[in-house]
Write a structure and sequence with these properties.
Order of helices and strands of chain A: EEEHEEEHHHEHEHEEHHEEEEEEEEHEE
Largest sheet of chain B: none
Largest interface: A-B, 28 and 22 residues
Strand order of the largest sheet of chain A: 6-7-8-3-9-10
Largest sheet of chain A: 6 strands, mixed
Oligomer: heterodimer
CATH architecture of the largest domain in chain B: Orthogonal Bundle
Structural class of chain A: alpha+beta
CATH class of the largest domain in chain B: Mainly Alpha
CATH topology of the largest domain in chain B: MetI-like fold
Number of helices of chain B: 13
Radius of gyration of chain B: 23 Å
Distance between the termini of chain B: 28 Å
CATH superfamily of the largest domain in chain B: MetI-like
Chain lengths: 356, 276
């Protein structure tokens, strides 16, 4: 089922949680709503579910008006961050709940319900724990039960509110890969909320980046990561260094360095900020061209596949962070206190009419 | 050290704490109660049976335990309702009502009894309206129940309230997303979660009602075989210097209450089997 959100706004008292949001989720896609807390992503999810009503705007399911439709009639599966399992029911009864509350005439028989729940238990790999209570399960197991419970009623849409937020790092990683595989199998239209960019980049077909109740950018993971539309998106997805300067007729000037910025060819000496990802900076022992800037190595952290180097720019207070592949760092064998040259390979310049 | 209770904890002192608990319970509960049994034991078995099974005594058991069960049941229903209103809604005067709930705890029981008796007596505030309609409350078994409901009110409210406060709104939302209507959400999700607390409150209200004396004797009328409660019978025996007879009846009451409370506790344990 496709979802269309049309100029939806929602206020909580004075606080504008959503401000004229329009979004389309095509049928069968897995979409991530990504943003910091307070960006309105959970409110949007709850409005889709029917747990909140929008102040303005409308929600369409498959092109049909659904704004006023009751939660129970929306056929959405909702997975909560803190599982919201029924703690007085066994795993089996939790999963069967949605099937057993149906009106008598559309309810499945006892045997069919049992078969269906057993299939779901197999899907979430908890066949042996069917008679446990939620209190006896680990966090990851609980969230899988919550997911199976939501899937049992064969929802048209699956909505997940920070589904892995309360889990520890390793379980999180496992579970989000499992969710991706699951979605590839059952293709139910899914929207999940997260503040973890890595999670969104890894799991989603499409990412919707939200900030202050508005959508900043939407696109495939590589689109939003490689071509951020706004400084906010740049800053939110991945590590970034800021260079303050001015842009004039296609050239960005910062301190002693100069860099081509062709998209600002028409600019006439405007204040600007250059955004450079920490892995898009080269460290060299000589000045390559005008875009090289002299700096001093302040700190080296060599843990994991990347080596993080902290550089203090000479002739200024500013410092930048550079991530080098391990082999490159080994070849350079940098020393703390050493003078080197840093050269941005790729820079995105935003003039000052954008603000973070 | 022993094999239990000696794990390193933040607060040490398992030994002294347990020792003190046992000492305290002995002084306050066990020694007085065992004195009761010793006094009873001065009777022969036949004398004991005669003392505890005379028709007047049996009638008083029936009225005491029957009225107490009824009162506790009424309190279970209306206590849940009161707790629900106090937790779920915000309205002016909520804090005041919250404080009013505890009043039956604080009021001297005699004051409560006299007040209830005068309000429900045939020419009292409420009694003058009920009497012409054939409803007699003061000086009948109904009066006993009213007094027992009054003094047992806070128990269910105060045990259910924290459980309701803790109940996550998300659980109800989850139920409605899964297609449950409001009634189903209540009896399949909310009620089972409250049940252990309701049973605890029920047991406490029941125990209090069985043991209540002060407020009941003013409203009950105390007619033998009709509206005479067991505690009053015990006092009557004491006044007649029949100490062994009084303790015999007390023993029966004690054992019966203990068995009832124990079974309610087992029921309560079963109802929270999920919270291991």
């Amino acid at each position: 089922m496709s979802i269309a959100i049309e100029s939806v706004s929602k206020n909580f008292g004075q606080f504008a949680a959503l401000n004229d949001v329009t979004l389309k989720v095509p049928s069968g896609e897995l979409v991530a709503l990504l943003g910091p807390s307070g960006s309105g992503k959970t409110t949007l999810l709850r409005i889709i579910a029917g747990l909140e009503t929008p102040d303005r705007g409308s929600i369409l399911f498959n092109g049909e008006e659904a704004t006023k439709r009751d939660v129970r009639e929306r056929q959405v599966g909702f997975v909560f961050q803190h599982y919201a399992l029924f703690r007085h029911m066994t795993v089996f009864d939790n999963i069967a709940f949605g099937l057993t509350v149906k009106p008598k005439k559309s309810r499945l028989g006892k045997g069919e319900i049992r078969d269906k729940v057993n299939t779901l238990l197999k899907l979430i790999q908890l066949e042996n724990l069917f008679d446990r209570y939620p209190a006896q399960l680990s966090g990851g197991q609980r969230q899988r039960v919550a997911l199976a419970r939501a899937l049992a009623v064969e929802p048209q849409v699956l909505l997940l509110d920070e589904p892995f937020g309360a889990l520890d790092a390793k379980v999180r990683l496992e579970l989000r890969r499992w969710l991706r595989r699951l979605h590839d199998e059952i293709h139910v239209t899914s929207v999940f909320v997260t503040h973890d960019q890595e999670e969104a980049l890894e799991v989603a077909d499409r990412i919707v980046v939200m900030n202050n109740g508005q959508i900043e950018q939407q696109g495939t993971p590589s689109e939003v990561y490689d071509r951020p539309a706004t400084p906010f998106v740049f800053d939110f997805l991945g590590n970034v260094n800021l260079f303050q300067g001015r842009v004039h007729e296609g050239t960005m000037k910062m301190g002693g360095m100069e860099l081509a910025s062709p998209e600002h060819a028409a600019s006439n000496d405007l204040p600007a900020i250059g955004y450079v990802r920490s892995h898009d900076i080269e460290i060299e022992r000589f000045a390559f061209d005008a875009s090289s800037i002299e700096a001093e190595v302040r700190y080296i952290l060599s843990v994991g596949p990347l080596v993080r180097v902290d550089l203090a720019l000479l002739g200024g207070e500013e410092s930048i962070e550079v991530d080098l592949p391990r082999d490159v760092a080994d070849k350079l064998s940098l020393q703390v206190g050493e003078k080197v040259f840093a050269r941005p390979r790729k820079m995105r310049v935003f003039t000052h009419d954008y603000q973070i | 050290m022993g094999s239990f209770g000696t794990k390193n904890t933040v607060l040490p002192g398992f030994g002294p704490a347990l020792g003190y608990t046992i000492f305290y319970l002995s002084i306050i509960v066990l020694i007085p109660l065992s004195a009761l049994f010793f006094k009873t034991a001065t009777l022969t078995w036949d004398q004991f049976l005669v003392a505890v099974t005379s028709p007047r005594v049996v009638a008083s058991y029936r009225i005491t335990f029957g009225a107490a069960l009824f009162a506790a049941s009424v309190n279970a229903v209306f206590g849940v309702l009161t707790a629900w209103v106090l937790v779920r809604y915000r309205f002016p005067g909520r804090k005041l009502i919250d404080a009013l709930v505890d009043l039956p705890f604080a009021l001297p029981t005699a004051v409560a009894g006299i007040t209830l008796a005068s309000v429900y007596s045939p020419n009292g505030w409420l009694g003058q309206w009920l009497e012409p309609r054939g409803i007699k409350i003061a000086f009948t078994p109904l009066g006993i129940m009213v007094a027992m409901i009054f003094i047992g009110l806070p128990f269910v409210v105060r045990t259910v309230q924290p459980v309701l406060e803790e109940l996550d709104q998300e659980v109800e939302e989850a139920a409605s997303c899964l297609g449950a209507n409001r009634l189903q959400t209540f009896y399949r999700v909310i009620f089972p979660t409250m049940l252990p607390a309701i049973l605890t409150g029920f047991a406490l209200a029941f125990a209090r009602a069985v043991g209540e004396y002060g407020s009941i004797i003013f409203i009950a009328g105390n007619m033998p075989m009709v509206s005479e409660i067991t505690p009053l019978l015990i006092i009557t025996k004491l006044e007649q210097y029949d100490y062994a007879g009084a303790t015999a009846i007390a023993t029966v009451m004690l054992v019966a209450s203990f068995v009832l409370l124990l079974s309610i506790n087992l029921l309560q344990k079963w109802s929270r089997r999920f919270a291991e």
